[in-house]
Design goal:
Shape: globular
Structural class: alpha/beta
CATH class of the largest domain: Alpha Beta
């Protein structure tokens, strides 16, 4: 079970895209027309062989739009996992009584979107690809858009909620992964990274942070400061979501 893509939601897609590209040094993005059925438009960037997506409502009454209203602005939206055994993952989801809000199996690309009221904190999707290194949602030519001189890959995310014990237990059951306690809450290790669960701040339940491995954290912070993307604690913030910078040498 691998965290392959993080999705954020924001009002001004063009502005956010400019910030994301400049701060993380990313290449061209892919616009997936498939999100139009949800009343959205998007941009998807490869970061190594992981992906960052930003969605934005293009019509009223969308799930993404309601989340923007609920959390008072831009923020985290989805955590998308890639499973080696999708049939087993879907059987586990059914056994846990989790509702599926959308599902596709199309030409070797599959997803299973889970109901956010059944798995709190973010919309969770369990996906599978054939072959494994493919990623349909990044477009057919995503490898041509990879730039790794600044950022190398997504390595995790943080979910906050009123009861991180219960939320993490639910995620662990759905993902089929064990959890462990941390100083601040709970943690689930997945391939190439981790999912952390902490108590809510004043914005309430949601995906509040994602982790990116970078070559030079200080240089990324300087890029963010130049674009007004540092918060009061000098943390990088993109699309209303904190970016935890993981030094590349920490991964060796």
């Amino acid at each position: 079970m691998r965290l392959r893509q993080i999705a954020l939601v924001g009002e001004d897609l063009d502005r956010i895209a400019a910030d994301v590209t400049a701060v993380l040094g990313l290449g061209p993005a892919y616009a997936d027309s498939g999100v139009g059925k949800y009343g959205l438009r998007n941009q998807v960037w490869p970061i190594g062989d992981t992906f960052l997506e930003v969605v934005s409502p293009k019509e009223a009454g969308t799930t993404a739009g309601r989340l923007l209203e609920k959390r008072g602005g831009d923020g985290g939206y989805m955590a998308i996992f890639q499973a080696d055994d999708l049939a087993a993952a879907r059987a586990r989801i059914a056994a846990e009584g989790v509702r599926v809000v959308d599902q596709i199996d199309r030409n070797g690309a599959s997803f299973t979107h889970l109901h956010p009221k059944d798995v709190a904190g973010a919309i969770v999707s369990i996906d599978a690809m054939e072959p494994k290194d493919r990623w349909e949602w990044g477009g057919p030519h995503w490898r041509d858009n990879v730039r790794t001189d600044v950022a190398l890959g997504i390595r995790g995310c943080e979910i906050q909620g009123g009861d991180p014990d219960a939320i993490s237990a639910r995620w662990a059951a759905v993902l089929g992964r064990p959890r462990e306690t941390t100083a601040d809450g709970w943690r689930i290790a997945v391939e190439g990274g981790e999912i952390r669960f902490v108590r809510s701040d004043d914005r309430g339940e949601g995906l509040t942070t994602f982790d990116v491995a970078v070559r030079d954290p200080a240089a990324v912070c300087a890029r963010a400061e130049a674009r007004g993307c540092l918060d009061a604690d000098a943390q990088v913030v993109l699309c209303g979501t904190r970016v935890r910078l993981v030094p590349a040498d920490a991964l060796r």
